[in-house]
Automatic annotation (TrEMBL):
This is Putative secreted protein. It comes from Xenopsylla cheopis. The chain crosses the membrane at residues 16-37. Keywords: Membrane, Transmembrane, Transmembrane helix.
Length: 89
């Protein structure tokens, strides 16, 4: 595959950094969108049922709890996809 070990290592490292940066950006964007969408959804729900959202902090607690509970599942799903791609390549 590689005639020069040094170039091979730098090539692999370059690919690793490229992919890890790409996945990091995707993950950050996904988390931001999820928080934004979740905040909108929960605030609308609580404004409709409980009046002003600022007077009721339980909605924020609920959305945080929901987010932290669903996060490990989300990450494990991405990790399995990542390992699948690595196996295919």
């Amino acid at each position: 595959m590689c005639s020069h070990p040094k170039t091979c290592a730098s090539y692999l490292l370059g690919h690793f950094y490229y992919f890890s940066t790409m996945w990091l950006i995707i993950l950050v964007l996904a988390i931001i969108t999820r928080i934004a969408l979740g905040a909108n959804r929960y605030s609308r729900f609580y404004e409709k049922n409980h009046g002003n959202i600022l007077e009721n902090s339980s909605s924020l607690r609920f959305s945080n709890r929901h987010f932290t509970c669903s996060l490990p599942h989300h990450v494990s799903r991405h990790a399995s996809i990542w390992w699948f791609f690595k196996a295919v390549q």
